[in-house]
Amino acid sequence: MAASALLNIMIRAAQKAGRALTRDFGEVENLQISRKGPADFVSNADRNAEEIIRDELLKARPTYSFLMEEGGEIKGEDGQHRWIVDPLDGTTNFLHGIPIFASCIALERNGEIVASVIYNPIMEETFTAERGGGAWLDGRKRLRVAGRKKMSDCIATTGIKLTGTDDDPRQIKQIAHISPSVAGIRRTGSACTDLAWVAAGRFDMYWEAKLAPWDIAPGILLVREAGGFVSDYAGRDKSILNGEVVAGNETIHAALLKSLKTVG
């Protein structure tokens, strides 16, 4: 795949941040034995990765706006373009030495996601997509969503927070309702990874709510460019606005939506 200049900028920024996270990840594993624990260290690693991404993107496109997990929203002179950045998606995994996390960037143009990068530095996998250009792994392998048509053959993934939020009872009901209908349910701890793996056909379906824009934006384009469908729980294209995601191929997406509506 011949990436555009903009996508190459995004890839370089995500990979530079990812290399820094890789170095910090080794330190986190050493800090696990300390009494204080690595939480403060991880917060610093998160902020450092975000600064790396922001600096790289600013050098290349100084007028673009930003929406970042740590730094919030920064308005740029360009009213059309906005970077949406999650420097460390899967922070809890990182904190516990679990190697499933990613540096993620999406580019929004006039309210539409037109390019995205999800980079897992430990697995050394770079997922990329540009609108109309397909979804790719490491720039060489074209991605397609899985083609399974029966829920009973599918592996689902979701976020199981269970942290005392008002969404917990609904999440538990959804899992209880969907679990008997599928071959299994997984939980990676990284929403961007979940969507990237749906695009790659590793997972057949994904659903989750209470997500932030930076959790969703990079993966939405990947799934769609891989031939999949993404919506909110009502089947609308409003995931970034309301934090709900349902993803899969056309048949499985429709079946999963139906299941979620049954639960309420």
Overview of this protein structure:
This protein is α+β, with helices and mostly antiparallel strands. It has two domains: 5-142, 2-Layer Sandwich (Fructose-1,6-Bisphosphatase, Chain A, domain 1); 151-263, D-Maltodextrin-Binding Protein, domain 2 (3-Layer(aba) Sandwich). Helices cover 40% and strands 24% of the residues. The strands form two sheets. It has an eight-stranded mixed beta sheet with strand order 2-1-3-4-5-6-7-8, sandwiched between helices. The radius of gyration is 18 Å and the shape is globular.
Roughly what percent helix?
A: 25-40%
What is the CATH superfamily label of the largest domain?
Fructose-1,6-Bisphosphatase, subunit A, domain 1
Question: What characteristic shape results from the CA principal axes?
Answer: globular
Q: Which fold name corresponds to the CATH topology of the largest domain?
A: Fructose-1,6-Bisphosphatase, Chain A, domain 1
Largest sheet: 8 strands, mixed
Taking strands numbered 1, 2, ... along the chain, how are they ordered across the largest sheet?
2-1-3-4-5-6-7-8
The quaternary state of the protein chains shown equals: single chain
SS-derived structural category = alpha+beta
Q: How many E strands?
A: 13
H/E element string? HHEEEHEEEEEEHEHEHEHEH
How far apart the termini lie comes to 42 Å
Q: What's the gyration radius in Å?
A: 18 Å
Q: What proportion strand?
A: 15-25%
| CATH class categorisation of the largest domain | Alpha Beta
Contiguous uncertain segments of 5+ residues: none
**CATH architecture term of the largest domain:** 2-Layer Sandwich
Q: How many structural units, i.e. domains? A: 2
- Helix segment tally: 8
